[in-house]
Each structure stands twice: as C-alpha cells, then as structure tokens.
Amino acid sequence: MSWPLTWSLWEQVRATPQHRRQPLGPAFPGIVGLFAAQELLRNQLSVLLLERKGLCAGATGAGQGYLWMAHRAPGSVGWALAARSLALWRRRVQADEGLREAIEWQDCGSLLVSTGPGENTALSERQLALNAVGLKASYLDPRRLAQIEPGLVPPGGGGGLLVQSDLQINGRAAAHTLLQRCRADPGFGDLMGPEGEVLGLELSAGPSGGHVVKTSGRRIHARHALVLSAGVWTGGLLSAATGDPVWAQLLQPRRGHLLEMPRPAAMPPVTHGMMEMSYTKHYATASAPKAAAPAASSPSSSASSSSSASPREPADITFTATTGASGSLLIGSSRESGEWDTSPSPAIIAAILQRSALFLPGLKDAAAAATAAAAAVADGKPDDSAGGGALAGLSVRVGLRPYALGGLPLIGPVEGAPGLFVAAGHEGSGLCMAPGTGELLVRHIRTYMGVSGLDTASFQDLRPDVRRRAVPSMTVKA
Ligand SMILES: Cc1cc2nc3c(=O)[nH]c(=O)nc-3n(C[C@H](O)[C@H](O)[C@H](O)COP(=O)(O)OP(=O)(O)OC[C@H]3O[C@@H](n4cnc5c(N)ncnc54)[C@H](O)[C@@H]3O)c2cc1C
C-alpha cells in the first residue's frame, strides 16, 4: 500500500461516525507500537501509525526473537509484564490461524549455560527461584547437557538450566504480520517514509488532549490521545515537546549487534535457545532507576568498538545462540551504552564470534576469520570479511535497544499533558513484552477516555512520571 492511499484511508477513518470509532491519534511502529495499535483497534479505537523509515527500521529489526522467562528476576514488575505478555502471545497463536507459522514460532525451550562451579551454584539457586514461582526449570549437569546439545561445550565444565516452556519467534516476521493484520482493519492508517517522520509535537494545555503532531507536510491532530512509542527516540521527542531534558536522559541507546550465518557443516545443530548465565545481570531490575551501570567485564567479555565516537565503557559481549526457522544460526550479542551509530563494527562482530566459540567450538574458524578481518580493518585495509571462507553467508543486524534508566519500560500517561501516553524503554525485551505493554497502555487510555477503569495499579512502577521522578539528580543536566 503506498502512503498517499494510506493517508486517504486515515482521512476516511476520521470521517467515520464517532459512536463507532473514536479516532485516537498517532503512534509509532516498532513491535511495541504495533501491539499497541492492534490492541487499540480491538477496542474499537482508530489509529494512525507514523514511521519515518520503514517497518523494522528500529531495534525491532535487530531482535533475536527469544521470548524467555529463564533469565528474569522472579517477582519483579518486569517478570510480571513478561509473564503476562507470554500468556498473551500464546493466546494469540491459539486464536489466530496461521499466526504461529507466519511468525516462525518455535517451542524450542531455553538453556541458561554456566561457565564453571561458581556459576553452577547460581544456576541451582535460579532453578529453585523459578520453580518457587511455578516455572518448571531443570538443572542439567555437563554430561546431560552434552546429550541434548552435542555442539555445546561450556568453558570450565559448566552445566545448564533448561526451561522447556520458553520459546522463539522471528521478530521481523512478527512485525510484518502484525502490520498486515492492522491494515486489514478499516480503523487503521499508516504513513511510512519521509512523510511519516515526526518533526515535532505541539502539546495542548487543555484538559481534553488535542495534541498536534508536525510532519514535513502536515499538522495531524490527535483528537483523543497520542501514543509515543518511538523506541529510544521517544525521550528526545518528549524532551523537545515538554521542555524537560530529563526524558531524553532517561532513555538511552544500548547498541546491539546480532549475527546471522549458516551453521558450519561440521557443527551439530543448536536445538534450544542458549544464553550464558551472566546474561541475567542485564535483567536484575530495580524499581528505582539508577545511572546506567558499567557493564560487568567478567565472566562475560568486553571489546572496544572501532565506531565509538567517545571514550566509553567497553562493549559488553554475552553469548547467546538460537536457530531460526530457516536453519540459520543467530548469534549474539553485544551491548554498548550510549552508542547511537548503527553501522556494524568489525571489532564487535569478531568479539561476538570469539565469545561464542568458547561455548560452541564449531564456530572457531568463523571467530578466527572475523578476528583477522577486524585486524585488517583496524590496519586500514578494506573489509572483505563477507567475501567467503568461514564467514560466507554472514549477515549483521545492528539495533538500538531502548534502555530506560532503572531497567524497566515506561508505560502510561504523561502527567501535565492529558491525552499523551508513552510506551518505550523495553531494552532487550520488547519482542517479549510488547503484548502486555499494548494491553496495559490501552487500559490507561480507556481510563483516560472514561470508557472503563480497569486496574493498572500492579504496574504503577512503570508509569512514566514515576520513572522520571526517580532519576537521580546526578544524571540531570540543566
Ligand atoms: C541485537 C538485539 C537483540 C535483541 N533480541 C531480543 C530478543 O531476543 N527478545 C526480545 O524480546 N527483545 C530483543 N531485543 C530488543 C527488542 O528488539 C526491542 O526491545 C524492541 O524492538 C523495541 O521496540 P520499539 O517498538 O520500542 O522500538 P523500535 O523497534 O526501535 O521502533 C521505534 C520506531 O520509531 C521510529 N521513529 C523514531 N523516531 C521517529 C520520528 N521522529 N518519526 C517517525 N518515526 C520515528 C523508528 O524509525 C523506529 O522504527 C533485541 C534488540 C537487539 C538490538
């Protein structure tokens, strides 16, 4: 569908009788905006989606697609949102014929992998904590681990924690499928490309919303509500609109690289999703935000990105591996705090493969080739790493995880701007948490519209102003 047609569709939507559809207003599409849009449509509210580049232009396009509970902190609000989201994902695929296949749903389970005796203890403690909240998790000693994953040889004689109910999807396929489903609804419109770029917002001071979104050619009135779900860019838009710089400081990029490559012929298949135990540090959420913590350098590794513009903390590299429905390997992943550049870094690619080869020895040749390629680039020679050999077929995705200080997303109304809502800051969990986010957001919107007063109290910690107020003063620059 070309965008002028989409625009005229929106104009028609605006003309539909008020009693049937309440025109809602713009939202942004990554996976979070798409789930919000679907939930709004389901509630008989119409939506216009605005996107300046294209579908999956943001973090959603780089996501690995694991929908997991194994690495989360039981009892935290993040756990609750993820658990609700997984229940909604499951309900969706049960209710929607064809969705399971379209999004490449795999009930493959997850394996948290330890790197030696110290982490084996942590793995056993995690098993007890997961079992205590009703999630079945089984500890596998190295011998049993080798039986179910012959290609996996954790360093230091590590074991594994198997959570069979965790699963895998293809995030890009999910976004495309959701957009198709939205477009089939007469209450939906979208503007993609330069005409969908939001250049600014004019917030109405009145009690009944009526905010204006400015694009290059139009001023779009959000009659009832405006949802900002522009991933890591949400903070800047909000700061510019409100004059409050803290929003932009609250949301920061955590750049991530994900590698996709054919499995080397001699390497056994990866049949479960895998993640090294130390990955759990990224999910040790606090309810009070703190400044972005330096990534721990041990036992996961670190690397310097050649594209980093300023001296920052080193990149955090933590091993993850999954197999896509097509059979290709997805290998991750890196985290670089405060890095906005989305060009692939040969140094980071090499560091990810080196880390992965410590767990999957079948990747040793690829790691060596990537290391040589990165060294050549550092010496000013051309990057021909994709040319063949052990790196043949390698493709790289780079995305900006929207990290909100404190490690929890912002979902709900913005105080002082009635009708303005935010859903952003899901860091490495947006694909997993998007359904619960859409549901919670729509509860807030319906309450604001006086349509219903469904409870949102359990997720009070996620309200944007709660998160904003908790930003410590040391991170706030005037
Ligand atoms: C390497 C990597 C691996 C990951 N793996 C997983 C995983 O396995 N499981 C998981 O749950 N999550 C994973 N994630 C995280 C997940 O991808 C993100 O949390 C999620 O995609 C965030 O979605 P979003 O909709 O908030 O933002 P985005 O996907 O970033 O979407 C925001 C959109 O807004 C648009 N936009 C911004 N500004 C404007 C403007 N002014 N006008 C118009 N449009 C604008 C952008 O172009 C973009 O398309 C991973 C992320 C990375 C980088």
Automatic annotation (TrEMBL):
Q: Which GO terms describe its cellular component?
A: cytoplasm
Q: Does the keyword Oxidoreductase apply?
A: yes
Q: In which residue ranges is the amino acid composition biased (Low complexity)?
A: 293-311
Q: Which Pfam families match?
A: DAO
Any coiled-coil regions, as ranges: none
Keyword annotations for this protein, in alphabetical order, are:
Oxidoreductase
Q: Which InterPro entries match?
A: FAD-dep_OxRdtase (IPR006076), FAD/NAD-bd_sf (IPR036188)
Q: What is this protein called?
A: FAD-dependent oxidoreductase domain-containing protein 1
